[in-house]
Design goal:
By secondary structure, the protein is an alpha/beta fold. The chain has helices at residues 48-60, 71-75, 103-116, 120-130, 160-169, 191-202, 217-222, 233-236, 252-272, and strands at residues 3-7, 15-16, 32-38, 41-47, 62-65, 86-89, 94-97, 100-101, 136-142, 146-151, 173-178, 181-186, 206-210, 225-228, 244-246.
Length: 276
């Protein structure tokens, strides 16, 4: 049976220049591969070693990029290795099969959101009223599914995100702070639900996962084995769970370590002929 590997992308496998965390002397810094260009500028990177590992992973497992990015944002990433048959975008709102949205899956997601949580317009209006233009740079709605703000972190009031989270909780939404972005996401909109569907279609009996943010917690809990890097919301809060390994590596080297772990377990499972 195939092994399924579902991994978050930003600050898990790929890193902006601000998130690389290259703390070693310059002469010892790893060689980097640019995997995303936006508006004619390089935007995201992984180490060349990580790129080789990811290419190998494509032969050992069903690799599923699993991101909160919109489809448009995801499609500008050029990952090494064979093109993934499946990808999950918009935090589970879109399941791509060979690059095309599965319309039935998207309709089922929309139905759950309509039944189980407050409408997007209500949340967006609250964000517009409550956020201060002094520290908000952008208001965005992603795929008509969730909303987020781009903020100046140094100007963001310390308790504002906590207050927003309490407000959202009562309406069936969750809040996550990732870098300069504050996400408001409906609780039924999860990466784990989409990953379970991919595992069903692929016939996978072993699922591996990695992620760094609170929006990845459900993904990690749904996997048989999981890893989180030494940075991000999950690390900052000390979050852990059985079968989840908290790695010490931070920044782009954490992405390399995560891929090593994926490949080790996937190859070990194949050699044993059964899930580990």
């Amino acid at each position: 049976m195939p092994v399924l590997v579902a991994s978050d992308l930003d600050r898990t496998l790929i890193y902006s220049s601000a998130a690389l965390a290259l703390t070693m002397p310059d002469a010892r810094a790893p060689r980097l591969l640019c995997v995303e260009v936006h508006e004619a500028k390089p935007l995201s990177y992984m180490t060349e070693t990580a790129a080789e590992l990811l290419t190998g992973l494509g032969d050992a497992a069903v690799f599923v990029p699993t991101t909160t990015r919109t489809r448009k944002q995801y499609q500008r990433i050029n990952l090494p290795g064979p093109p993934p048959k499946y990808a999950i975008c918009a935090n589970g709102g879109h399941l791509l099969v060979d690059g095309v949205t599965d319309a039935d899956w998207h309709r089922s997601v929309q139905a759950r959101l309509a039944d189980e949580c407050a409408p997007l317009d209500e949340v967006r209006e609250h964000l517009l009223r409550a956020a201060d233009p002094v520290w908000v740079r952008k208001h965005r709605v992603a795929e008509d599914l969730f909303a987020y703000l781009v903020v100046e972190r140094e100007l963001l009031p310390e308790d504002w995100v906590k207050e927003l989270a309490v407000w959202a909780e009562n309406r069936g939404w969750t809040v996550s702070l990732q870098g300069r972005k504050i996400y408001a996401v409906p609780k039924p909109l999860t990466k784990s639900a989409a990953v379970r569907e991919v595992a069903r279609r692929a016939g996978a009996e072993l699922t591996l996962a990695a992620g760094d943010s609170l929006l990845d917690a459900d993904l990690l809990l749904a996997a048989d084995r999981g890893w989180r890097p030494g940075h991000g919301e999950l690390a900052d809060s000390g979050w852990t769970a059985p079968e989840i390994a908290a790695l010490p590596e931070r920044g782009v080297l954490a992405g390399e370590r995560i891929l090593r772990e994926f490949l080790r377990v996937a190859r070990g499972s194949a050699a044993a002929g059964q899930p580990l």
